[in-house]
Specification:
heterodimer, A: 149 residues, alpha+beta, Immunoglobulin-like, six-stranded mixed beta sheet, three-stranded antiparallel beta sheet, 1 helix, 25% helix, 40% strand, B: 108 residues, mainly beta, five-stranded mixed beta sheet, elongated, signal (chain A), TAT_signal (chain A)
């Protein structure tokens, strides 16, 4: 069978559409992660440091992954951590949880357990009461995803 | 649901100004809205979306939760206690139900 010029063009166009579409799906999650960070920081670009994430390197079960976050801050009435946003950039919905601290918290530390759909980055963004923002990322390898089939 | 039993661990007493750790756990399926049942229909989302801790009526810690928080949500955080009093913990469900727990602490 010979392939006509028309068939060839059609096949190429189809492949091009699929190729263009696939990365867009992956980008969508990354974009909404960035959007969530920007909405949280009110447009400021967060700097590395001050906030630190405590995650396991490998999570066998993505249904319950222990995650801890701590922020280096004196936690006094005029210098404290307002909120910490936790994101997972590979989940269908990157938002995980937001902790709101007060000067009465003593130390800005919190722990919880989260779901991770696949191997991905967990991100913590901290916002201080003066508006400065800090970020930390950790990759967590997930053996069994936690989003149910 | 009557089986959403909150469990809270607060030290019975603390020194004045001490920073204490509080651990909380509540039974809840935290249905993410991503899961399908056997017939292939999406199970509607039902999670606890907000947690609040108050000490003597003043809010000290709150947490907004999204579906990515595991079933039976566990939270650990710290509070500085300057006076004796009572902690009130509140969980708010998507369906509007509110689960509460109260714990008191003595300060020496």
């Amino acid at each position: 069978m010979t392939i006509t010029r028309r068939q060839m063009l059609g096949a190429t166009a189809g492949a091009a559409v699929t190729l263009a579409f696939l990365p867009r799906l992956a980008l969508a999650a990354a974009q909404s992660t960035d959007e969530a960070i920007m909405a949280f920081t009110k447009g400021a670009t967060p700097t590395e440091g001050t906030v630190s994430l405590d995650t396991p390197e490998i999570a066998e079960n993505g249904n319950t992954v222990p995650v801890g976050v701590s922020v280096d801050s004196p936690m006094t009435a005029d210098n404290y951590v307002e909120s910490v946003l936790i994101l997972a950039d590979g989940n269908p919905n990157p938002a995980v949880a937001t902790f709101h601290f007060t000067a009465l918290s003593g130390v800005a530390e919190a722990k919880t357990r989260i779901r991770l759909a696949k191997t991905q980055n967990v991100i913590a963004v901290a916002r201080m009461n003066d508006g400065s923002v800090f970020i930390d990322r950790k990759e967590v390898k997930v053996t069994i995803g936690g989003c149910g089939g | 649901m009557a089986d959403n039993k909150p469990r809270v661990k607060v030290p019975k007493k603390a020194a004045k100004g001490e920073v204490i750790a509080i651990k909380t756990l509540i039974s809840h399926p935290m249905e993410s809205g991503q899961r399908k049942d056997k017939a292939g229909n999406l199970v509607p989302r039902q999670i606890i979306n907000k947690f609040t801790c108050e000490f003597n009526g003043q809010v000290v810690f709150t947490c907004d939760m999204d579906p990515a928080v595991s079933a039976n949500p566990y939270l650990e955080f710290n509070v500085r206690v300057d006076e004796p009093g009572t902690f009130k913990f509140t969980w708010v469900d998507d369906d509007g139900s509110i689960y509460e727990a109260v714990n008191s602490i003595a300060v020496e």
